Amino acid sequence: MRILIASNIEAKDLFQRFTAAAYKVDICPFDDISGPIKKFHPDLVLLHCGCRVQNCLQTLSAIKSGFPSIPVIFLTRISAEHIAIEAFRLGARDYFREPLDFPELLETISNLGKYIGQSSEKRQAIVSPASIVANGSDKSLPKNIANVIQFMENNLAKHISLDHLAKKAAMSKHHFCRVFKKYTGASPMHYLAGKRIERAKVLLLDEEKTIGDVIADVGFQDQSTFIKNFKKVEGVTPSFYRRDNLCARNQH
Questions:
Q1: Residue 128: pLDDT band by 50, 70, 90 thresholds?
Q2: Are residues 111 and 124 in the same domain?
Q3: What mean pLDDT, rounded, does the chain reach?
């Protein structure tokens, strides 16, 4: 895996740690990201922001607009819930506050391997389907599949069955599953679960919401199913994810 660290501050320690972990690593300033991405063809971008959060958010937006298939992890010294929410809204795959828990960061990157191993077309659909629909960035995506993805995004809290999705696409269930996986790299229901987890990560940062509230808001039928799916994607339970992020915020 090739990692591009985009940073306008000292990143020597990160470079050495990732190199020691057998990753290919390149470093560039985050003010002008498109050139280095085209040059190095990274599998993953780490936005190492320090305190320049607004600049990094602009860079994140530029990456997801120009290179939507590349996963981005947002690293910052600033602890603020609205920054985390905005980073996820713009398409960040994950969000870490410094000082970093480097083993946890490595585990997160390892969990991304199943996505990074996909072809560029498949990764685009898996990592950021909302951007495909909103921006029309994948012109080969059939309109009925795009409509189904948009329907998922707009109705995450509701019960959505495979039969319903196939009807939305005007296809038989078998044909719909085959076509959907061809364009996204995932089955419809696995794809839907992934989008629910992405939404749950944002909602878990809201201290006023209980775990039960989050489960209801993202459409999982019960707590055990939610925890199982969340842990499969993130490597930790929702409670651990929330506690770890809230503790990090309160320490600053």
A1: very low
A2: no
A3: 83
Residue 82's CATH number:
3.40.50.2300
As a whole number of angstroms, the distance between CA 89 and CA 248 comes to 20
Please tell me the distance from the alpha carbon of residue 159 to that of residue 93, in angstroms, as a whole number. Answer: 25
Q: What is the domain-level CATH number for residue 171?
A: 1.10.10.60
For residue 168, what are its two tokens? 């939305």
Q: Are 214 and 204 spatial neighbours (Cβ–Cβ below 8 Å)?
A: yes
pTM recorded for the entire structure: 0.50
CA separation for the pair 79, 64 (Å, rounded): 23
Cα torsion 39, 40, 44, 50: sign: negative
Phi, psi of 48 (to 5 degrees): -95, 95
Q: Please list, residue by residue across 58-70, b when 16 or more beta carbons sit within 10 angstroms of its beta carbon and e when fewer do.
A: ebbebbbeebbbb
* Residue 71 structural domain: 2-116
**Dist CA 230 CA 54 (whole Å):** 29
- Residue 239's contacts (CB-CB under 8 Å, 6 or more residues apart) are 211
Say which residue the tokens 């992890």 belong to.
Answer: 73
pLDDT tens by residue, 155-208? 999 999 999 999 999 999 899 999 998 888 888 998 899 899 989 988 998 888
For residue 250, name the pLDDT band (cuts at 50, 70, 90): low
Name which of 32, 43, 99, 40 is nearest 73 in CA terms: 43
State how far the Cα of 99 lies from the Cα of 235, in Å rounded to an integer.
20
